[in-house]
Structures are given as structure tokens and as C-alpha cells.
Amino acid sequence: MKLSELYSKEIINIDTGENLGIFGDCDLVIDEKTGEIISFISGHNSHFNFFKETKKKEVLWKNIKKIGSDMIIIEND
To answer: What global pTM score does this model have?
Structure first.
């Protein structure tokens, strides 16, 4: 699967049911030596949240349990 195919998928935490946003709005943490993706940092980036603090969460790449046609399912550590 190409990384570009993940951009429009929603990230859902299977343990809490929380929607962590769209993968395309995430920052990737990449190991500089190996080039592997270590984790991604999700955050709700919206123009309507100008006065609210952005809720960010770092998710380890290994915590992805399933990538479906329209969402990515993650699990807590």
C-alpha cells in the first residue's frame, strides 16, 4: 500500500472509540538511519478550533491493527 492511499482515512481507537482525525493531517516520525516509520502524531487540525488547544496523540506504527477501505483501526499499548 502506498502512503498516499492512507491520507483520506480516519483513525479510530478500537479501545475507546475515539476518532483521532484524518491520517493526512498527521506528522510522521521516521527513523533517520533505517527510513522506517516509528509512529505518527495525530491532531485535530480545524479552522474552527482556533481558540481551543489542539489535542495531539502519538501512536506507534506497531499499534495499527487494521487498515480498511475508509479507516485505520489502532489499539492502545
So the answer is: 0.78
